[in-house]
Structures are given as C-alpha cells and as structure tokens.
Amino acid sequence: MRIVRIPAAIARALLGTSLSMQVWAAQTPEPGYQLEPVIGMPGKDVVWVPTPPQVVELMLDVAKLTPQDLLIDLGSGDGRIVIAAGKRGARGFGVELNENLVQFSIEDAVREGVADRVHFYVRDLFKTDLSPASVLTTYLLQHLNVRVRPQLLAQMKPGSRVVAYAFHMGEWEPDAVRQVNGFTVHLWIVPAPAMGRWRWVHDGVGFSRDYEMDVRQNFQFISGSARSTTTFAYLRDMKLDGSRISFRLTEEAGSALAQTYYEGRIEGDTITGTARTNNQAATRPWRAKRVAGRTAIDQSN
Predict the structure, then answer these.
(1) pLDDT for 112-129, tens place per residue?
(2) Nearest CA among 104, 110, 46 for reference residue 79
(3) For position 120, what pLDDT does the model report?
(4) Which of 31, 55, 277, 285 is 20 to 30 Å from 146 at the Cα level?
C-alpha cells in the first residue's frame, strides 16, 4: 500500500491506485504492535490507497529484478514492493514519512521471512542517498517525479533501472511502457553523461587519423557531429543504453567512403571499446577521451 500526495478531489478520482512520500525507524518490531492500514487514511497532503498486487509484480518484472539487485522504493507505504523484491531474493529498503506504515512494513517483513534482506525507514525521499540502488521504484505524482529526477540521474549508476507506476517523469521519455488490467508502468534506464567533445586516434582506414566528436544529449537520446584532421566525416545511428554508446562514422578514404562502427562503454571521461571498419570481421581496440563539455544530464531542478 502506498501514500499518494494528491488533492482530495483527485484522490477520490484515483481511488484504487497508490503513491507516496517518505523518512527513518528502528528495524525491530514493537511487541504487540497493532496497525491495520485503512484505504483513504490521511497523511501529509495525501491519502493512502493500496497498490494492486499485479502492478507490484509487473513493476519488478519490468525492472528485470534479480537477487543481485538492491531496490529502493520511494514512498514505500505498507512496504509491499520492497517485501515482494525480498521474496525474489533481492535486497532493498523503503523510505516513508508515515511512522505507522513504516512500523507495519517492518513487522510484515518479519512475517514474510525477508527481514534479513529488506528494511524500512522514516525518511525524506529528497534527502535519501539513491546511489546504492540498481533499481528504483516510485509511485509519485508527476511533479514529484520531476523533482526527484535530477537527484536520481546524478546519484544512480548508468544502467540502473527506474520504474514508476501510473505517472511519468516529464520530458524524460520512458524506455518502455507496460500495462496490466489497465494499470500503466513506465521504465527508464539511467543514461551515462555522454555530452561533450571527445577525441581519439584510429587506424581503421589503413593509417592513423585524429578524430573529434561533439555529442549532444537529451536524457538517453544522443546526436552529434564528427570531423577528422584530414577529411570529411559524419555520424549516424548514435545510441546510448545506460553506459553503452555506439555509432557509425563515415569518412572519405581515397576515392571511396569508409564506414566504421564504434561501440564502447563510458566510464567518467573515457570511452573504451572496439571499432570495425567496412564490415570487416576483425575489430580494433578503441579509446576516446572527453576533452570538454561534460555537464549534468538534468538541470531542471
């Protein structure tokens, strides 16, 4: 079950969906503690309603959750997403502002046998370190998703997955959208910062040439231009998937055109990978350095 920060009128229209905001608590249940969450239970500018079980499972399926993952749920409500992740062998924790719901979640984790893998805290989601998460789940209204967006893009590792129920992330287009029984789940893959000016040396056309590439970035979408010190060149098929980047560079090679397919992984200001020219079977090592222009992906907050 989740806490939704919505006006009362919208809350009545959305009854049957769920959301939240959140903050820290002890991990030992109080003896005899009794709480039975009630639909519509008031919170800070919110009402509380249950997240359908089929949506919880779809969110974890869309995230491709594995036992190697650590999941953070922003606005964990009664803890059902985090507990479901624990049942799949993953580790994780939920952050929630409602102390009663946090206590209920701690007790339920014990009842479900996953208390060794999952934890719950009374904590402000905007003050939560998201860097440990390989999977982040939310059920927040759009304006809250947009507000937390710069935080998760700055803190989470490239390739990490973000899954939101019902509401999206503003201008950040999802990488996938799935539905179950009319409920919608969005998936985003955290992209690496690829923007800026990159330089490298390569011998794909039979002799060494210096190359330079300017990359523009809008979240996971990239485009750019390239040049060689000796000839005309242009880029096409540019793709970014987490930290993986790939593109094709076409250039003059004597009286013909040569096309080289580059792929690699961005780590800080370095791309390391391989290159293959004119569909040759053999690949060559490739390494590029960013020499200017790196900025935060999202500066909207």
Answers:
(1) 999 999 999 999 999 999
(2) 104
(3) 98
(4) 55
Output the CA torsion sign for 273, 266, 72, 5. negative
Q: Indicate the pTM of the whole model.
A: 0.85
Q: What is the DSSP letter of 75?
A: S
pLDDT at 19 over 50: no
What is residue 291's predicted lDDT score, i.e. its pLDDT?
97
Percent of the chain whose predicted confidence (pLDDT) is above 90: 69
Rounded Cα gap, residues 46 and 19, in angstroms: 9
β strands within the chain, DSSP E: 2-4, 41-43, 46-49, 70-74, 91-95, 118-121, 135-138, 161-165, 176-180, 183-189, 196-202, 209-218, 221-228, 233-241, 244-253, 256-267, 270-277, 284-292
Sign of the CA dihedral 265, 267, 268, 272?
A: negative
* CATH superfamily label, 2-189: Vaccinia Virus protein VP39 (3.40.50.150)
